Automatic annotation (TrEMBL):
InterPro entries: Homeodomain-like_sf (IPR009057), HTH-type_TetR-like_transc_reg (IPR050109), HTH_TetR (IPR001647). PANTHER family: HTH-TYPE TRANSCRIPTIONAL REGULATOR BETI, HTH-TYPE TRANSCRIPTIONAL REGULATOR RUTR. This is AcrR family transcriptional regulator. Residues 11-71 form the HTH tetR-type domain. It comes from Streptosporangium sandarakinum.
Length: 212
């Protein structure tokens, strides 16, 4: 469906607010910028900011990008014949190759990362998000395989894939802090994913292969 004028204006307003807020947070620190200051800089009202973003943290980690369903969505979208683990591995490889912003493989990510690490509420949100991703993936795997919701195998596989996702982000953060270029980091991520695939057992790599 073609985006209408109203929807396009709303998207543009949301994007402008987010970009203005991110610039202020990076420049001055997340905890030192108020919503009122974001609104003033973006030339909108405080109510407008809250209409688009329920919490201050959402300005940095918008739910549509930092979603608890990220890993579950990747697995649900896999084609027939592909397992859950290979779906996640392939998706992360594709994101690394195209220098996807979801992985932070963009110019200027270093200062953004420093800002996030300096804000306790943002680091707590990231930790909670990782746990939610694993829980959502475990529920999806249990549903697809017909296992009980609290069965151990779906939870173990989800934990391994969630840990893989966290490892990739940690590697990117470590190399970004060391001043490496996004293209160099992306190549390192691809090598890391190859290494992970080599050590994952067949039980995980062939678990939950989509049949149709």
């Amino acid at each position: 469906m073609t985006e209408g004028l109203r929807e396009r204006k709303k998207r543009q307003t949301r994007q402008r607010i987010s970009e203005v807020a991110t610039g202020l947070f990076v420049e001055r620190g997340f905890d030192h910028v108020t919503i009122a200051e974001v609104a003033a800089a973006a030339e909108v009202s405080v109510n407008t900011v809250y209409n688009y973003f329920e919490a201050k943290e959402d300005l940095v980690l918008p739910p549509e990008e930092a979603s608890p369903q990220r890993l579950a969505d990747i697995v649900r979208a896999r084609p027939p014949g592909v397992s859950a683990a290979r779906a996640v591995l392939d998706h992360l490889r594709e994101e690394a190759r195209r220098r996807d912003r979801r992985l932070g493989l963009t110019k200027g990510f270093g200062r953004f990362l420093e800002m996030m690490r300096a804000a306790p509420t943002l680091t707590a949100r990231l930790e909670e998000l990782g746990s939610q991703m694993t829980d959502a993936l475990a529920a999806t795997l249990a549903e697809e395989t017909g296992a009980a919701r609290d069965a151990p195998l779906p939870r173990v596989v989800a934990w391994q894939l969630g840990s893989l996702h966290s490892l990739v982000l940690q590697e990117i953060g470590r190399r970004t802090s060391a001043g490496q270029r996004p293209d160099v980091i992306a190549e390192a991520v691809l090598e890391l994913l190859d290494a992970v695939e080599d050590v994952l057992g067949e039980r995980v790599l062939t678990y939950a292969i989509r049949k149709d």
